[in-house]
Design goal:
This protein is mainly α and 407 residues long. 75% of the residues lie in helices and 5% in strands. It folds into 3 domains: 2-50, Ubiquitin-like (UB roll) (Roll), CATH 3.10.20; 55-159, Type II secretion system (T2SS), domain F (Receptor-associated Protein, Up-down Bundle), CATH 1.20.81; 160-407, Receptor-associated Protein (Up-down Bundle), CATH 1.20.81.30. The N and C termini lie far apart (87 Å).
């Protein structure tokens, strides 16, 4: 994309000239027609204006924008809409200031479509990165004339969602790194350090204890087969990952994760928090319960929970209240279901669901803290025990030999 300079006639027939951002002459002409300008002459951008980010997006090399970039975009758009800035002008400002190439291209495409008469929800729906929830809420905001309020709600929703994900990710990152480093240290000891002791023990002719022999045999095995075993493990891991990405494999994996101590609780509470907050946001924005449930199901990443929520939606369509099918889900707390029931009776389901989401998020924070406190000492004890066993096994024959000499 670059600055295409143009000369032409505006809506009143007066001569005009300027520059617009476009990726081709055809697109430049389309944008100008959308603004009511009849171009007479269009000059391509200078080679010095080459945009490497745009080129990377065109070639599929640019990284797609994530939740953080979407959150920042939503927050800035909400601020400008609240300040009374027109949609097109707001999108142009965001386009000029955006650093992520993928999001920059997306904002430009949205601005072009809006300039041609489409609604912003229709324009967003055509772009990757804006899920069904996001587009549905923006559509509801446009229909009700409360787009600024909806964008504020979306900002809060995305912030809460990102916070929960960061908590879970942070809880797993530290133990994973410590385990990886510890495993690497143990492997280096077995492959490089233990063989040095073996030559010393062989020279002494001392009888080798069973534990020492076990460590030596393990060292020999790792020394001989590590170069073959590591690629095999990587291939097996890749195959397992591919299987987990299939519908059947994902369902089995999700069910296994949910049954894990503590971590299973974090996954369940995290998904239920996301479900509750999403449903609350949808209902408070005027979306019907059935449509809101349909969108919530699309946002849940756990196959088991998705299946259960599909059953909830089915029962609601049949005329049941939201509480009745939720009470039949074994991992859905009865107290929370009763809170939702009170919301149904008082006509404030959205408000009660927001409180439910707060409860689940607090429980996630508590469980993450408990898991961190449990895993850290467990990893240290296990890794320390393995290293201590290796050292004892290597030095034990020397101690035995020294004891024999003294006697």
């Amino acid at each position: 994309m670059g600055n295409w300079r143009y000369q032409g006639l505006d809506k009143t027939g007066k001569r005009c000239e300027g520059a617009i951002q476009a990726s081709s002459e055809r697109e430049a002409r389309r944008v100008l027609r959308g603004k009511g300008i009849r171009p007479k002459k269009i000059s391509p951008p200078s080679i010095m204006e080459f945009d490497i980010g745009e080129w990377m997006v065109d070639k599929g090399l640019a990284k797609a924008f994530g939740q953080k970039e979407l959150l920042n975009f939503t927050k800035q758009l909400a601020i400008m809409i609240n300040a009374g800035v027109p949609i097109i002008s707001a999108l142009e400002i965001l386009f000029k200031n955006e650093k992520n190439p993928a999001l920059k291209r997306t904002v430009k495409n949205i601005a072009v479509d809006v300039g041609e008469g489409k609604t912003i929800s229709e324009a967003m729906n055509k772009q990757k990165g804006f899920d069904k929830l996001y587009c549905s809420l923006v559509k509801a905001g446009e229909a009700g004339g409360i787009l600024d309020t909806i964008l504020d709600k979306l900002t809060i929703h995305l912030e809460k969602q990102e916070k929960t994900k960061a908590q879970i990710k942070g809880a797993m990152t530290y133990p994973f790194i410590v385990t990886l480093v510890g495993a690497g240290v143990i492997w280096m000891m077995m492959v490089f350090v233990v063989p040095q002791f073996v030559s010393m023990l062989t020279d002494t002719g001392q009888a080798i204890p069973a534990i020492t022999q076990l460590v030596i045999d393990t060292s020999d095995f790792l020394g001989k087969y590590s170069l073959v075993g590591i690629p095999i493990l990587l291939v097996l891991g890749s195959l397992l990952g591919s299987y987990i990405r299939t519908p059947t494999g994902k369902f089995i994996f999700d069910r296994f994760i949910m049954k894990m101590p503590i971590f299973g609780g974090i996954v369940i509470k995290g998904n239920l928090a996301s479900f509750s907050r999403t449903l609350s946001t949808m209902l408070s924005s005027g979306v019907s319960l059935v449509d809101a449930l349909d969108i919530c199901i699309d946002t849940i990443d756990n196959g088991v929970i998705t299946k259960d929520l599909e059953e909830v939606k089915k029962k609601v369509v049949e005329g049941k209240t939201l509480t009745e099918p939720l009470l039949k889900i074994e991992y859905f707390p009865d107290m929370v279901a009763q809170m939702i029931k009170v919301g149904e009776q008082t006509g404030a389901v959205d408000t009660m669901l927001e409180k439910v989401a707060d409860v689940f998020e607090e429980e996630v924070t508590t469980l993450v803290g408990e898991m961190t406190k449990l895993i850290e000492p467990l990893i240290i004890v296990v890794l320390g025990g393995i290293i201590a066993t290796i050292l004892v096994a290597m030095y034990l024959p020397m101690f035995m030999a020294a004891g024999g000499e003294d006697s």
